[in-house]
Amino acid sequence: MAVNLFSTDEDSHKIYKHDGFSTSILDSFSAPLYQPWGLAWEGSNLLSSDYGEGTIFKHQGFSATILDSFNCSYAEGYTGLAWDGTNLYSAGSWGEKLYKHNGFSNSILSSFSSPGHYPEGLVWDGTNIYSSDFGTGKIYKHNGFSNTILDSFSSPGGVLHGISWDGTNIYSTDSGTDKIYKHDGFSSTILDSFSSPSTYSYGLALEYTGC
Question: What pairs with residue 14 in β-bridges?
């Protein structure tokens, strides 16, 4: 399945749209606040989070125009985002929790403690949530939305951040190596990688563009 990759970078304070899985940039814009972190694509619009201000934004398509936003507790340090078609998921790195929101809102339907102490990336595969943890350097596959772990592996670099999923393969970012990785399925085996557009690549999301 063909995809375009989205990534955030804290150093440049930008959000990027890549041409497929490559260093080639189709478009970019400045993030609404200073610390862009998590990303999710909800089918038509990009969702992003700002770590420092605890705010989650809904953009108009891929643009700096904001359709909606809400604020979470600053102390939670919101990082990763995911979208299941109806509800938003977020990772609260300081609170060490994963949250399921009621639609796109700060109303919480469910939450549980993350398997590590610093959850960063999130992605939903249609059945299960995946999370990455900066502290443990691992990527986890959960059973549904729960703290039960079906599988996990260590990331290829030392400073793991965002993750995404294309239906077959997991993707990850690492600011230690300044690379974005495409894994072979859900494993530590790397199919491909490239250097991130700036120094601190954090969030990832995918847009499906066809077969």
Answer: 9, 30
**pLDDT, tens digit, for every residue of 45-81?**
999 999 888 899 999 999 999 999 998 764 567 789 9
For residues 14-34, b (16+ Cβ closer than 10 Å) or e, as one string?
bbbbbeebeeeeeebeebbbe
User: pLDDT digit string (tens) for 147-173?
Assistant: 999 999 999 888 999 999 999 999 999
pTM for the structure as a whole: 0.94
Residue 189: CATH number of its domain: 2.130.10.10
Which tokens belong to 32? 């609404």
What is the number of structural domains in the chain? Answer: 1
Nearest to 92 by CA among 137, 49, 41, 147: 49
pLDDT at 49: 95
Whether the CA torsion 82, 85, 88, 89 is positive or negative: it is negative
Question: In which domain, by residue range, is 106 found?
Answer: 2-208
